[in-house]
Amino acid sequence: MRIACPHCGLRDVQEFVYLGDAAPQRPDGLAATEAAMFEYVYLRDNPRGLLEELWYHGVGCRAWLVVRRDTLTHAIEYVGLAKSRKAGAAA
Amino acid sequence: MRKQLHRLNSGGLIDRTQALCFRFDGKNYDGFAGDTLASALLANGVRLFGRSFKYHRPRGLLSAGPEEPNALVELRTGARREPNTRATVVELFQNLEATSQNRWPSLGFDVLSLNRLAAPALVAGFYYKTFMWPARFWEKLYEPLIRRAAGLGRAAAVEDPDHYDKAFVFCDVLVIGAGPAGLSAAVAAGRSGARVIICDEDFRLGGRLLAERRQIDGRPAADWLAAILAELASLSEVRIMPRTSVFGLYDHGIYGAVERVNDHVAVPPAHQPRQRGWRIYAKRAILAAGALERPIVFPGNDRPGVMLSGAVRAYVNRFGVLPGREAVVFTAGDGGWATVRDLTEAGAHVAAIVDARSEINPESKTMALRVGARLFAGSVVEATHGGQALRSVTVRDASGKRARLACDLLAVSNGWNPTLHLTSHQNGKPVWEETIQSFVPGRLPPGLAVAGSAAGRFTLAEALRDGARLGREAAVEVGFAAAAADPVPATDAETDGLAPVWRVRGNRGKAFVDLQNDVTDKDVELAAREGFRSIEHLKRYTTLGMATDQGKTSNLAGLAIMAEQVGKAICETGTTTFRPPYTPVAIGALAGHHRGKDFRPVRLAPTHDWSREQGAVFVETGQWLRAQYYPKPGEQDWLATINREVLATRSGVGLCDVSTLGKIDIQGSDAAEFLERVYINGWKTLPIGKARYGVMLREDGFVMDDGTTSRLGENHFLMTTTTINAAKVMQHLEFCHQVLWPELDLRMVSVSEQWAQAAVAGPRSREVLRRVVDAKHDISNEAFPYLAAGEITVGGGIPARLFRISFSGELAYELAVPAGYGDAMMHALMAAGEPYGITPYGLDGLNVMRIEKGHAIGTESNGQTTARDLGLGRMMSSKKDFIGRLMAKREALVQADRPSLVGFRPVDTNNRLWAGAHFIGIGRAAKTENDEGYMTSVAYSPNLKHWIGLGFLKNGPTRIGERIQAVDPVRNGEVEVEVCSPIFFDPEGTRLHG
Amino acid sequence: MRYSGFTLISQALRGHTGWRPAWREASPKSTYDVLIIGGGGHGLATAHYLASRHGINNVAVIEKGYIGSGNVGRNTTIIRSNYLLPGNTPFYELSMKLWEGLEQELNYNAMVSQRGVLNLFHSDSQGDAFARRANAMRLAGVDAELMNLEQVRTMLPFLDYKTGRFPIRGGLLQRRGGTARHDAVAWGYARAADSRGVDIVQNCEVTGIAVTDGRVTGVETTRGQIKAKKVALAVAGNSSRTAAMAGMRLPIESHVLQAFVSEGLKPLIDCVLTFGAGHFYVSQSDKGGLVFGGNIDGYNSYAQRGNLPIIEDVMEAAMALWPALGRVRLLRHWGGIMDMSMDGSPIIDHAPVQGLYVNAGWCYGGFKATPASGFCFAHLIAKDEPHPVAAAYRLDRFATGRLLDERGVGAHPSLQ
Amino acid sequence: MAEQAKSIWRPRSAWAGIVEAGQIGVDGKPGVTALTLDDMGFATLIVPPGSPDLASATKRMIGLDLPKKAFVSLSSTHGVAWAGANHWLLFARQQAGFVDLLQSFSDHAAVSDQSHARAALTVSGPRVREVLAKGAMVDLHSSVFPVGATALTSFAHVHVQFWRTDDGPDGPIFEILVPRSMAGSFWSWFAASAAEFNCRIDRD
Ligand SMILES: Cc1cc2nc3c(=O)[nH]c(=O)nc-3n(C[C@H](O)[C@H](O)[C@H](O)COP(=O)(O)OP(=O)(O)OC[C@H]3O[C@@H](n4cnc5c(N)ncnc54)[C@H](O)[C@@H]3O)c2cc1C
Ligand SMILES: NC(=O)c1ccc[n+]([C@@H]2O[C@H](COP(=O)([O-])OP(=O)(O)OC[C@H]3O[C@@H](n4cnc5c(N)ncnc54)[C@H](O)[C@@H]3O)[C@@H](O)[C@H]2O)c1
Ligand SMILES: Cc1cc2nc3c(=O)[nH]c(=O)nc-3n(C[C@H](O)[C@H](O)[C@H](O)COP(=O)(O)O)c2cc1C
Ligand SMILES: [Zn+2]
């Protein structure tokens, strides 16, 4: 596979580290409940088909990326920076 | 020179001026440059090439290409011995040495061919039904027998002496196969200026054109070939790669290929690789891999002398070898007739043409007449005769009448199967094409197109047309302007009528579907009878298509016979999955440079050479090599060394390299806030110029890493991590910053490589440092107390950092200098410490001292333990959120009786302790139910003069003073130990502050 | 029809015309007492033990493709019980005991071969960690030996002891570990279950799970609706998708694991060997192919195929460990989809929906578990309470913190 | 005492004990030339997202444009290479004065001195791309990797940053930085890969 890093261009998957589903949002702060944290840490939809996931360009620019990839065909539809995603959401 | 009895006097693409001698089974032969091992042996009249897998039947050449199921040999000898090599693809070289395999004592006389006597019982899957009693006989008797009989060639027994490379290459258009389709595609794409790579596994480019007598634009195809190769060579962005097999198609246009750089010589020239594994990144690819001819299943079809008709043409036309003098051609289509023509022209006599079709066109009839061959229409070959070489065949005609015909060659033609393997590597399913009675590529992976025979368009005209069109299209798709299209050259007339015969029933002899794995038509029927009817079950039950040829010539016949058994059409049964590699690939080529000490990079500290000078013994820690201890001449064993190092440190001063620790520079106005969130303890209050110990959890509440972090400025921190976890922590921090809290003002970078760092520990450490640190810095106890951290200079202005931290429990410092000065620092410290007897100590000495102090390291924070388990529960702040806070509170993780960290000492102080021992109550049975924890680290304490250990024990801290057994059944140990505080030495910590 | 050397010979004399299908080609009935989704090793074993141990015969195994098309038919066939944690060891040891009697129990030769499993270690601390595991095994009554360098060298003289980047220091040997013929395990259980009346339905995909009032009532399939009192999931790799049909989310990701086989060779290696410094293992099949495995590709996938980085990684490890393999050729490589759980250990439990049972999360290691998994799952389904040796495999352990994380890598499936 | 200390405190090249000047591989005209670079100054510069003034500071202080994408700006004495989002590698051909330069940059970016963290070398020659292709998973063709381009990637499992400087008489020239600790492994791969083309080695 190759992932088009927004900074570095198309790079071999060997340069990246995978984390998994990008959807779960960390319940931040002292008010967060154990139940919410449990879901965040452990439960996954694990779809066959499109999945937004987190990848780290560890061998390159060290950016965390959000990659929309089909888990059946491995086709990648979209790659963006994780950083701008949250900034975007806040805006 | 020895006479090559079956070599034609002229013709062929061999270089008759370059004779090569070689050996097969200990006998010398001659061949020519341009031969394969197969063609050269055939030229010498060799018929028998090997023995089959199960029945050890004599086997000859079936094909002239990579699909060969029979002619497998061991190539070369000794360390370079290469088993299961297809003689049909081995390029002949001077002094080549090959041996037949899977036979004993010789190819001609093979004892295991007696298996044929048991053959009636050795049907598909027989082993599932027997060998079950008595149970213990399986490993002792049956299995060793089966294993010895199974297998094919013998691997080399010693290290492969050759070098292998790996390389990466990028292109706009990759063309796989250099037959007429591939060459046309490459030129069409190349002319537009696109970067083109054209690979062919053969050592000579041209594909089937090399084997056929064809005309292009009214001239011999060889002329066209020469012209197109010259043009390709002239295009600067085109790369031509002969001897290169594309073996696999991977995601996103990545192709695996292997180049046989020096397989055509006995020993690679100095500094050159034997083979090179390529990863090809292609924007577009065109598969022009041609087609494979398929045999017919009939009784006796495995006798040496039965050969694919296209292979016969290849031997005649390309290699100038006559595979037989008296031939019979058995064909289900027009393909066989070309063989009749070529054989006759080469001087062989075709005794008969057996065409399974009842309608024969008039031109063919004329031809049969002309060449003096008997024509059997609507007929089949029903049996073959001869021992280890074909002598005659029995033909059965449409009326059921039989005739026996003498011959030494039977050429078989049953149509072709597109070489579509690569199109299936990404789950693509081939689809049945009725008109050609074959599977053709189905849905294609993105970026791949298929040209010519590989697409099931079998004529030369189609190959040329497809290639030109797809090559041009591919270039345009990746952004090049289309080059002007030449008219597609004209070709001579060709016909491809076909009515395939899947099998001929007969009652004499076995009819083989899979020649290499000895699967017969009866085996397929048996599988059907026993319910293994899915083609995948058929494959797995009978092993059809699972041999080294992966069923290239057998799969379809197997499916067809199964389809007939279950009353289905072939299109309903589908095919089994083609998997990479297309042809087998040497493991060496896939590993390339990465073997031996180059398997993975090794990281050396900037102080490494110094440690080596000091005689260090090194140990792997993650990627690093670290000094373990520094033996001195005369020391009895490692324990003596370590004791010396520890005692010298505790009584005077010791020096230890700690350069490998991870170091992360953290700056920004939110740096302190960030640390609050990633560490369990508080950071906002840390004053500038101070260091603090921190513990980091994973989000699931278990300890991830620990280390000290120093505040160098209001918004500037320097974090240290453990050696092993440095990269993991960096990644985690980047995650926390970029994914969780991008709003924080924060800048981070690893500076691990920039600093060499040394621990100077022991009561005299300050005095040593005083002589190294530039005089202007006050490092007195008052000015630079425990946990002070500051930027200083050494050596007259070299920037350095000093930390008053201690892992050993002594008055201690860590001094960091830019890595280039690491070696100097060690020498300077040694020189300065000389009056105090400064002693280098390694990881082992460090380990003793940290165990004496009860400090946990990776063996304690092993990913299964929480901060609470480590006795650090109170560090967890309740005033802030931090990673892992909530999950660490889960009920099972705060249970009182969770094993927690305590110390252990042997009750009998002469006993040694072992890490990995488990704790069992005294008098209780050594059983899981009574298991109360385990020992993580042990050391001999030269200060206490006995062994000490750390470990996790249920309710540990409440059991100080209790006795328990540390049991170690795998090392036959059982030691009674006393539970104690994990801090064995200087529990008040007074030495630290000294 | 009983299999034996005698029947084989008598059939040989009759041209093998008397053999009958190993299992019937069943069409689904309208209703079953127990419906098992997934005709892999675990599903088929569950059916066999339900019928043979609990007398529950009105059972169907519903398989979307052909039986054995999943991981049971594509794994590297290692069986062992060399586990560390008390929640795991007895379970895998039960499995090992069942393997030891499997052929006789099933009247099918699954070629269980106790050739030994040797895990190499490369540093003192790794050696200590292995000692801890070996001791845990011995406490649980499992065989384990710690081998020093010389013993390893005697056993496997052809490894690289000289130039290796990670020098070999010793190994943990479980002699009773070994391999089994993967497909035969599926076929053997299928035949045994079938002989007790279990319906094995192939080419039938479950597309929905019917739940009424919090109770399961049956399933939707590509061949129509089937009613069942109890429904059991054993769909390795597809657990999340199937559980979602009943509204459940699992602590699981689906990952691809590749496997590799070389061309057939005369016997070379007599045990299963694993490399402690890389993710790599090798053994030799009865047919002579060297069977290699490595790490997962490391991303969620349902594609049953992998990519070059891991292929090269495995071959690099092969050459690093065993440098005589340079000219041995890789014949085929493939992938399987495994449900990687968040602590690397499996789940055998009730679902929140009544009458629904889950068997999932087997990661790299579920082949060796096949007999015990079927045995314990059958127990759970029949008695509605967990079998004692599988009692740790609860779904709620992630919430309570009673994790079974052998490797200590945390909730990170691609590291498990 | 002070005298002695001075003589001890000499920096050591990252290539010391690893690379020796000379020739490796086949005889003949060198296909590749490697030149180790010592005494260079390196530092990472990181700014908060959107911070504008580093560009003007760079222009002012070393006369170079701050590259926005994966490029490097070079002068005969200095250079600045893009090294990630809001992240650059500043370098000087000589360490003298570098500390002061970093001091003045520290008002405009988070500065971390990395002068000793990298082992640097220049590789060139007609076959240089073929050697690098044995490790580089990035496309080095001129149309994709022109003069001035840089990439962070790995060669043969070793992290590297490298860039292409102006072409020389023998074709492209690349400067490669590897982590100091891995210089030995890097060299082992490079030497084995270059040997078939004949490699001349010069020490700076
Ligand atoms: C490459 C590889 C190597 C491995 N090596 C080992 C090893 O050496 N040792 C070891 O112990 N373990 C190993 N494993 C793990 C082991 O193979 C699996 O854990 C185990 O086989 C899973 O259980 P199973 O046999 O029931 O799964 P499977 O055989 O996968 O069975 C699940 C079945 O469910 C079917 N199914 C799925 N969804 C549906 C549906 N909706 N309707 C109907 N049917 C459905 C599937 O088609 C499949 O047949 C390996 C796995 C892989 C992939
Ligand atoms: N009359 C018939 O029945 C019939 C049938 C088939 C082919 N043909 C003739 O064959 C020719 C077809 O032309 P074409 O170009 O399609 O095929 P081709 O067979 O001429 O060329 C295919 C080439 O691809 C190479 N190749 C295959 N797989 C490869 C791989 N994985 N990696 C590297 N190289 C690989 C082969 O070595 C071969 O050189 C025409 O001349 C046609 O007339 C005739
Ligand atoms: C232990 C084991 C040994 C295998 N040996 C062979 C072999 O000798 N030849 C072969 O072609 N395939 C072999 N295979 C691979 C199968 O052909 C097949 O690829 C695998 O079961 C996955 O199925 P699939 O490729 O149909 O998806 C083996 C598989 C396993 C699990
Ligand atoms: Zn990037």
TrEMBL record, chain A:
The lineage of its organism: Bacteria, Pseudomonadati, Pseudomonadota, Alphaproteobacteria, Hyphomicrobiales. This is Sarcosine oxidase subunit delta. It comes from the Bacteria. Coiled coil: none annotated. One of its GO terms (molecular function) is sarcosine oxidase activity. One of its GO terms (biological process) is tetrahydrofolate metabolic process. Pfam families: SoxD.
UniProtKB/TrEMBL annotation, chain B:
Residues 608-880 form the GCVT N-terminal domain. GO terms for biological process: tetrahydrofolate metabolic process. Residues 901-986 form the Aminomethyltransferase C-terminal domain. It comes from Bradyrhizobium hipponense. Belongs to the GcvT family. Pfam families: Fer2_4 (PF13510), GCV_T (PF01571), GCV_T_C (PF08669), Pyr_redox_2 (PF07992), SO_alpha_A3 (PF17806). Keywords: Oxidoreductase. This is Sarcosine oxidase subunit alpha family protein. InterPro entries: 2Fe-2S-bd_N, BFD-like_2Fe2S-bd_dom_sf, FAD/NAD-bd_sf, FAD/NAD-binding_dom, GcvT/YgfZ/DmdA, GcvT/YgfZ_C, GcvT_C, GCVT_N. Residues 509-592 form the SoxA A3 domain. GO terms for molecular function: sarcosine oxidase activity. It comes from the Bacteria.
UniProtKB/TrEMBL annotation, chain C:
Keywords: Cytoplasm, Nucleotide-binding, Oxidoreductase. It holds the Pfam family DAO. It comes from the Bacteria. GO terms for cellular component: cytoplasm. One of its GO terms (molecular function) is nucleotide binding. It is found in: Cytoplasm. Gene3D superfamilies: D-Amino Acid Oxidase, subunit A, domain 2 (3.30.9.10), FAD/NAD(P)-binding domain (3.50.50.60). One of its GO terms (biological process) is tetrahydrofolate metabolic process. Residues 33-379 form the FAD dependent oxidoreductase domain. This is Sarcosine oxidase subunit beta family protein. It comes from Bradyrhizobium hipponense.
